[in-house]
Amino acid sequence: MRAVFLDAETLGHDVDLSPLESAAQLRCYSRTSPDQVTERIRGAEAVLVNKVVLGDQHFAAAPNLKLVVV
Length: 70
Description:
Strand content: 15-25%
Mean pLDDT: 93
């Protein structure tokens, strides 16, 4: 499963993401601006967010998306 974490830095630097990395192809971005969201989630099956807001236009651009984790 291809997963993308759009704003990992917002959780702090002491968060262990290794369980997620072993379960999926995880791509982590420290921060994602609104104009970067569509490109970064394209092709992803799962998206992890903390502060990034996802809208209809993002879901329309990511037909493989199956899971959003907040």
